[in-house]
Amino acid sequence: MDEGRKYINDFALGTVGAFAIIGTSIMILYRYVINESYGDLLSLFIGMVGAFCYGKFVSSSKKYWLFGAAILLSGAGIVFMSGL
């Protein structure tokens, strides 16, 4: 892969990740302030990180990315079901 293309892909992934973290954090803080359950947003955030780990596993075939994805995605399900 061209080095410039890899840089652009990494930059785009980082930018999307930063906006997702900031947006999810603002929504969680808003729900915390108005005293509503924020478990669904927290599980969405954990699921995003798990999906990122799975994507890294697909591209690199390293087992620890799959292990992390499995833990994070199951954790997202647990947080969503508990309602926090």
UniProtKB/TrEMBL annotation:
Keywords, ordered alphabetically: Membrane, Transmembrane, Transmembrane helix
Entry superkingdom: Bacteria
Sequence intervals crossing the membrane: 12-32, 38-57, 64-83
Protein name as annotated: Uncharacterized protein
